[in-house]
Amino acid sequence: MWNVLNGVRILDLSRVFAGPAATQVLGDLGADVVKVEEPGKGDEARGFGVTKEMVESGITVSPSFVALNRNKRSVAINLASEAGQRAIRSMVRECDVVVNNFRPGTMEKYGLGYEDLRAERADIVYCQFSAYGNVGPLANFGANDVALQAHSGLMSITGEADRSPVRCGTSVIDLHASLALVIAIMAALMHRERTGEGQMVESSLLRSSAHLMNYFYGEYWVTGAIRKPMGTANHLSVPNQVFPTADGSVVIIAPGDDMWRRCATALDAQALDRPEWRGMLDRQRHRADLIQAMTAVTLRLGSAELIDRLAPAKVNVARVNNLGQAADHPQLAAIGAITSFEMDGREVKAVASPFDLCGIPPAPNRPPPLLAAHTDEVLRELGIGDSDIEMLRAQGAFSQPRTTTSGDSR
Amino acid sequence: MWNVLNGVRILDLSRVFAGPAATQVLGDLGADVVKVEEPGKGDEARGFGVTKEMVESGITVSPSFVALNRNKRSVAINLASEAGQRAIRSMVRECDVVVNNFRPGTMEKYGLGYEDLRAERADIVYCQFSAYGNVGPLANFGANDVALQAHSGLMSITGEADRSPVRCGTSVIDLHASLALVIAIMAALMHRERTGEGQMVESSLLRSSAHLMNYFYGEYWVTGAIRKPMGTANHLSVPNQVFPTADGSVVIIAPGDDMWRRCATALDAQALDRPEWRGMLDRQRHRADLIQAMTAVTLRLGSAELIDRLAPAKVNVARVNNLGQAADHPQLAAIGAITSFEMDGREVKAVASPFDLCGIPPAPNRPPPLLAAHTDEVLRELGIGDSDIEMLRAQGAFSQPRTTTSGDSR
């Protein structure tokens, strides 16, 4: 972690992916992130994808929780209890940012809405993350990543031509949303630095999905075009897709006219460097013929040979890796994209935040917290005395709710 | 646009998607973004996906360029000319941030590397964006979004089970990278505010892709699992996928135990609320049976009926929209996710940056710039006198390079 946000304390009431991924980046930047979880149960993501085999081999916390919750401390507070709500309001006085992703209205129901919390701390940055936003016909619909892949039309352009759409294999809308939240929070902190004013900032899975779809919507608004799935190909340029080789497959991309010329020359000038394919619009128009001619050439060559010919010609070419090949590729470690921390006595690897600040040496990471591990420590740091902590405890602030409230979260 | 970054001037030498998408967010936040383009030709993205039909109907700039280049001014400078390089070095003295996405070494070749530019402006924030990072075995490989979808393994988990992988339909790695760049630049500006120090910040398509794949890599590193495509389903929880209905299809997601119970009850308690499916691990183990039983139920109901039953039960459910349905859905406009600007005398809609700063009223947007429209204006603002501008012009700083250098960009 870096020291950029040292001194910024974040009370993170969010769970599952987008919110926790956002606060992890803020933690990586040096913020003090206090993760508030439900007593006894914790962030549901702790259990996601944990199989019987994993439990039997000693893995009880999910890889997705581990991937998104380093550099945080965990306190367990029952938000449904009046004492728990009082504890949060006390804590907010010493915090700079509050993050939540409850359904619209839930925080208000708990007495923890923006107006409630700014009464405790006037310059609080209050971050509301939701599925579809706080107003409009879908405001009260719950959703997750896959729901927004469907709603946004991303699914409708992902898949093989003339077959059913599929999802993008990773939680792209959640993770993209997480970086949007980080930006919104940093912008609000910069605004506060200059003006002394806090504010509410918002984002949603819907806004994240729309940003990912921006040029498709823009095209539709102007031309009415409704794009469809194209397998591995791309409507923007030709060639720009996977090609089969003698021993596997590679992606070859040569969008610009110069790059296409170099590509054609490096592969088979006679077959490919045709005058009628030299312009970008020409290649679009003759897409099918060009792909067929390219395929005839690539099928004659091995993947390594293709890469050896195209890379030096500065044509974009890449292997189609599986997860293991990708995760273990030496390039990933070489650029510092892998970070680590100690957990249960062993070194655990994780993907670093997706940027590097070359002028600031990083400090070691905190591992993802055990549920409730820091409740007393954090409350004390936030100025709540031992006798008050005991009273809150006696009143049920830190105990499991009688009926679980997790169903109210998105 | 908001006023958070008013006073921050960004010299943006990047082209195509990730860099321009990043600087658009910075422009939306109030930075003064000066887009440096190649004289005569401009950012290649100006031509992406422009078809003959579009040109004939008066659309000469691509929807993707329009989607990613508002709130910028364009200056055209030939970076391959000595006079052009001198112009850039002069401009840098009055800039806070420089962004580029040339291949590693190109900026240095132009005399515009970090060391060169910090000699002009000691506290410059220098943002280097590349395909695979600046070091390591792939540092000199060019790539684009699809190449990294292949390299990162994202493609290997996207598609139908037991069929060839496909790409995620949008440029998810580029756009995710753009938000990572914004964070890195804002972090560097905050660090500069506190310490007076500039620095180099970096990101890459590889880092963006790794962040999107973080929990898959994390799982692989711990368990060795190499996930495969699952159509619309998800290895993390069951049910979490598209189901066919009597008249279409909907996504139904009920990952938690409580939500699953509500889902089963709302649909067909007798068929679905079975004791052996009540725990998350149970549903994983009995995935095939559960999906089969769910499908038998959903096929009997229309999509609207399914939504009417599941939404009030707080079960996540969503329609599978096409691009037009998604772009025109009233929810998108209701939450302010659509912005606009005037271009060629008409109002053009675009997707807003993916967050809202509720405490800061936004100002109107600038439309995407015509190529080179602001060259003289910007140079003058940056303190370069008219006679110097004329000299630079006479020396070829603003003219088309004799042999195009676009092939050197990634």
Automatic annotation (TrEMBL), chains A, B:
Transmembrane segments: none annotated. Keywords: Transferase. Gene3D superfamilies: Crotonobetainyl-coa:carnitine coa-transferase, domain 1, formyl-coa transferase, domain 3. It comes from the Bacteria. GO terms for molecular function: transferase activity. InterPro entries: CoA-transferase_III_domain, CoA-Trfase_fam_III, CoA-Trfase_III_dom3_sf, CoA-Trfase_III_dom_1_sf. PANTHER family: SUCCINATE--HYDROXYMETHYLGLUTARATE COA-TRANSFERASE. This is CaiB/BaiF CoA transferase family protein.
